[in-house]
Design goal:
By secondary structure, the protein is α+β, with helices and mostly antiparallel strands. The chain has a domain of 211 residues. Helix content is 52%, strand content 22%. The protein has eleven helices and eleven strands. The strands form two sheets. It has a six-stranded mixed barrel with strand order 3-4-9-6-8-7. A four-stranded antiparallel β-sheet has the order 2-10-1-11. The longest helix is centred in the C-terminal third of the chain and has 44 residues. It starts with a helix and ends with a helix.
Length: 312
């Protein structure tokens, strides 16, 4: 029996058992389609979630102080002069204060948790935002105690219904465990880099994200006399990030005359950790979809067995 006769016999068998053929094909098609679809959803969703986050962290790193180090002294804290020396070194593209805080927010007698990024002109260069409605801070607002803030788009929708309604409105912000609240005006709304995460985990689970000028924050909430323990640096060449991190650490140790006090960490490290979690989730989803293919395969084997028995 040659190949042509086998092929003709196969076609005749398929035609004589149309329903069986259709069900077998459906099992294979649904199984393969499920695996491909779930894999595509997993990969596409991961890239969608991490796309904006990767842009934020690419080529940037933090320098922080190891307060647990036995060699740590008060003089090791950073100040504006430290930032100026780093800029003058010419080794880095941009240098800025990295200061974040968790404050409580009050609107219409409802209290919420807020995540505040302290902003300066240099910080806006390293971590820029896209203003959707209103405006960003003006240069003089960084230097004076102006009670103005910008808010991310997800928070604006959550608090005011949409971005336009938020601009010009007042909200109250204060420290936890403090009765004192301060009124701020929202001057602009920027596109949220965490918009996909909001959709994934739900708006109510995400904090209200704000930006506030450094001078305003320092005069209102901070009593550290212009000292801070974290710096955000953007490397001149993003592809040589490890070298830039080593240069920053060496420069600060020489300038501050200290050793084993400063810690460098790439901003993308946290994003990579989240990426691993999403990758694992994507693999799990694909494996779950593979069950459909496995079941379809068993159906095909069953049909083949029945056909062989009939022919025998």
């Amino acid at each position: 029996m040659n190949f042509l006769e086998v092929f003709k016999g196969t076609i005749l068998t398929l035609k004589s058992n149309k329903l069986r053929t259709l069900l077998t094909m459906l099992g294979i098609i649904i199984g393969i389609a499920s695996v491909i679809t779930m894999w595509a959803i997993g990969v596409g969703g991961r890239e969608n979630v991490l796309g904006d986050l990767k842009k934020i962290g690419y080529g940037k790193f933090n320098v922080t102080i190891d307060h647990k180090s036995e060699k740590f002294k008060y003089k090791d804290y950073f100040n504006k002069e430290t930032l100026e020396q780093l800029r003058k070194s010419g080794k880095f593209k941009n240098v800025a204060i990295s200061l974040e805080d968790r404050l409580r927010l009050k609107k219409d007698n409802q209290r919420r948790f807020s995540y505040v990024e302290v902003s300066t002109l240099d910080y806006e260069k390293i971590s820029p935002v896209e203003i959707l409605v209103g405006r960003n801070f003006l240069p003089f607002e960084y230097e004076k105690n102006e009670r103005v803030i910008t808010m991310d788009s997800s928070s604006a929708k959550k608090l005011f219904g949409n971005e336009k309604n938020a601009v010009g409105k007042d909200i109250e912000i204060g420290k936890f465990r403090s009765k004192q609240m301060y009124t701020y005006k929202i001057i602009g709304v920027y596109r949220s880099p965490y918009e996909t995460l909001d959709k994934l985990f739900g708006d109510e689970d995400m904090p209200v994200i704000l930006r506030i000028p450094y001078k305003t924050y320092n005069d209102t909430y901070n009593s550290s006399l212009d000292t801070f323990d974290s710096i955000l640096i953007e490397a001149k060449n993003a592809n040589k990030l490890p070298e830039s991190m080593a240069e920053a650490k060496a420069f600060l140790e020489f300038y501050k005359n200290t050793k084993e006090v400063y810690i460098t960490r790439a901003v993308s490290n946290d994003i990579e950790s989240f990426d691993k979690i999403l990758s694992t989730l994507s693999i799990f989803i694909t494996l779950a979809a593979s069950i459909s293919l496995f079941v379809g395969g068993i159906g095909v084997m069953n049909i083949m067995l029945v056909t062989v028995v009939e022919r025998t």
